[in-house]
Amino acid sequence: MILVIGQGGHAESVSSVLRALGEHTQIKSLEFVSQEEFDVDRYSSLVFGIVGDSLQSRNRTISRLEQVSKLSGFVASTAIVSSVSTIADSVQIFEGVIVGPKVIVGEHAILNTGAVVEHESSIGRNTFLGPRATILGRVSIGECCYIGAGAVLLPGISVVSGSVIGAGAVVTRSIEEPGTYVGSPARQIS
Ligand SMILES: CC(C)(COP(=O)(O)OP(=O)(O)OC[C@H]1O[C@@H](n2cnc3c(N)ncnc32)[C@H](O)[C@@H]1OP(=O)(O)O)[C@@H](O)C(=O)NCCC(=O)NCCS
User: Fold this and answer.
1) What atom in ligand 1 is closest to the CA of residue 130?
2) Class of domain 73-180
3) How far is CA 53 from the centre of its chain?
């Protein structure tokens, strides 16, 4: 039995992928977990099923939970991940994701349904790729970045830690200042 921590849509999505992998899952809210009323040994592994508004806050919660137990990731059965890429243990890879060769994905990153990460790109710790986000070759994305659904990051650019890219944005140049960027070509709005 895998414990999925969370109670929102992301926890449901995580649980659905795990069930498709043949696992039994139980979803419990973070509040319950933080009361330390659960027995870690009852579960084969723990998966963190929360995204939330702030990835910095997600990072802090993950650090706290990892004092109790290591958190696990997964690779959905329909995902294709190059054997010469390096994926941290806690990464969540959803249905239909494609990861090309020599890609590096840091701890607790989330590659949501249908996201594509092309060759030699890197995705930082706790960065979230929305459904069908497309990261072209040799792109470097920092930690705690939120890349909206369907966004496209053109080859060779870098995105500084803590950036938010809106759904459908096309990022044509490197982003050096953390903020929120939308549109095509992507422009900073805050
Ligand atoms: C970019 C984003 C984070 C901004 O959210 P926000 O800070 O709450 O911004 P607001 O909704 O107040 O919008 C601010 C302005 O940006 C515009 N805007 C917001 N998102 C936009 C987008 N993706 N593309 C183009 N313009 C966008 C709004 O129309 C608004 O313009 P206005 O000031 O002229 O009215 C959000 O709109 C977004 O795209 N999130 C991604 C969601 C997603 O993909 N989730 C995946 C879940 S699995």
Assistant:
1) 46
2) mainly beta
3) 13
pLDDT for 179 equals 97
Cα of 147 vs centre of ligand 1, distance in Å, is 12
Q: What mean pLDDT is reported for the chain?
A: 95
Question: Which residues fall within 8 angstroms of residue 99, CB to CB, at 6 or more apart?
Answer: 79, 80, 81, 82, 85, 87, 93, 105, 111, 117
CA of 83 to the centre of ligand 1 (A): 36
Any residues with Cβ below 6 Å from ligand 1, and which?
Answer: 112, 130-131, 148-149, 164, 166-168, 180, 182-183, 189
Which helix H or strand E contains 16, and what residues bound it? helix 9-20
Which residues make Cβ contacts (< 8 Å) with residue 67, sequence separation at least 6? Answer: none
CA distance readout (Å), 160 to 18, 35, 81, 179: 31, 35, 25, 9
pLDDT tens by residue, 136-179: 999 999 999 999 999 999 999 999 999 999 999 999 999 999 99
